[in-house]
Amino acid sequence: MNTAKISGSPVRGLTAATIGFFFGSAAISLFGPSATKLNEVMDLSPSMMGLLVAIPTLSGSLLRIPFGASVDENGGRKSFLLLMILSVIGLAGLSILLGTHYPSNMQGTYWLILVFGCLSGCGVATFSVGAGQSSYWFPKNKQGFALGIFGGLGTLGAGVFAIVLPLLLHSVGFVSAYYIWTAFMIAGTILYFIISCNAYHFQFRKQGYSEEASKAMAIEAGQELFPAGNMKQSLLLSARIPETWILVIAYFVTFGGFMALTAWLPTYWQKAHGLSVTQAGLFTSVYACLAALLRIPGGNLADKIGGLKVSLFAISLLGTVAAVMAFSSNLAVSGLCTLIIAVAFGLNNAAIMKLVPVYVSKSVGGASGWVGGLGAFGGFVIPPVLGKVVDTMGATGYYRGFLIFSLFSVIVMLILYFGLVVRNKNK
Description:
By secondary structure, the protein is mostly helical.
């Protein structure tokens, strides 16, 4: 007699992952706005400032690789909770440090701030865990839509927080804002703990059923995708598949690009077009929200016509519009180009995550880790490159820097065409 019990549903699993990632990505949002405050009392060098702002993104990006792969081993819930708890510890540590040392006793605390920053960045790594979880919950013909909702609504925090945080800092002050943000993260962690659940196969396995029995019962319950091994095996298996690295490159340009421009655009709008800090923040927020929300229809479109077609269109759109923006000093034209770039980012980010379970179906977690982790690493790499263009060319560099995205687009188009279209046609 079958006594197996299952809980949850695809909708519940997707909701939990989306909410968890929304809160997880919030953990590092205070670092950018607060860096100036810290610099005022710590007299940091430009390189120290750069490391301070980037360290949570760096740890959050690289941790996506092993934690994404861990989904194939434990279903994701345990990994997700661990990352959120570490993020809470990081924020709580920063809150206590600032509460006891800021502003007059901050000398010698820089390296401790970096450690807490690394821990705070763990929340960002929930992306690859949630992507793997969501993929296992849904059938292949609905994964684009599901991953679009997960990535779109989860990433929406970047735009929302760009508006909320300056207001919070202004109304309650620098130190109090960290305590409030810590409480916010604790609430998100508890909420995820209450509503989250792994896909059916992992639930059956936890109840002691064999791999074969768990898979058979999960298929009966509606699950289509299954892992081929543990975390190490998942990473190794996905790393041996060329398509994994093609998707990494494409995601590096558009998700890394999304993160890079979210950090770079406030400076661009102020320096290139003379906008105020508030206006630059508002423009950036509109861009970030649009790029995030476009992942939802982008995922749906990828389900209908194929992720590869959507990706090729989005990359070509990005390359064309970035070239126009590189030579535009008109505010209206640049504003419109930024919105179109957001559309291209949103569509391609959705399409690439749809393609992960298509091309790497036996190690979705491992592939999600590689794609999500190394792709997000672009958010750490691209801003210094844009800054270097400005250092070399002066004020004109704020415009010409966008040619980097045109160059990246050409490279990605060639790789997608020869690596996926031609290669699979010849199989």
